[in-house]
């Protein structure tokens, strides 16, 4: 494969995907509306086609103009998007859809591509715009991938868990980075052993390329850090990376309630572990970045940015009340 069309490609996963493709000598074209800052605007190695991915005529024109070997769909949020794209790009060597670990419909450890069932998706859910139906819509997109493969289209799906790394506009990890950098005592909800599988963004990017090059049509591939850490271990990793001496303070539901908080107030906390098996992807030759390297790159970019994850802040005053209560116990 020599040419790649990236639908999206300027914000987070897509931005790192373009970097990865360029590093592997692909000719890259971006297709997007141009609504976000484009880090590749002045890069002569990257071509640009402006258009709305929900406009089938615009996608058809891009397909004809670019004639890509591989298509990477970073912004397919509705099943219709996938069905339309797999029709328009039916002749490419690879169409790779970014799905989600949230597409799985049953809690089990680990969630496996060929064993764990997907979420259902009703007609209303397929067009709903709320976060509540995100996983349902991604699952239906995966079913569209299977249907297209059954028609002979070379289409695959990659399912990341929680993605983190440089340029993460969601700011989920930025909250924890900021907490470690700003405070000597960091509250970790529960006993610190809860697990929400995370995936370093550069590894997601390489997974997308490797699946395009080596994956099988109609197949799904989970992607996540090969070494999984608890929430407390993640905070410790941030502190070690930042060379900060931080005390982790556990606060259970009762202690948090005394401060007017709950475990749900903390981003990246999850009661039941969310773990994806990555063996299927690893079998294609994919490898993940050591956590220490991933966190060092993430922290470096965080410190150079203005992101602080404040939208997830449960309130330091409330936390101080909780800390005061715990100090008396």
UniProtKB/TrEMBL annotation:
Residues 107-139, 299-318 are annotated as: Disordered. It comes from Natronosalvus rutilus. This is NAD-dependent epimerase/dehydratase family protein. Residues 4-224 form the NAD-dependent epimerase/dehydratase domain. InterPro entries: Epimerase_deHydtase, Lipid_A_modif_metabolic_enz, NAD(P)-bd_dom_sf. Residues 107-117 have a biased composition (Basic and acidic residues). It comes from the Archaea.
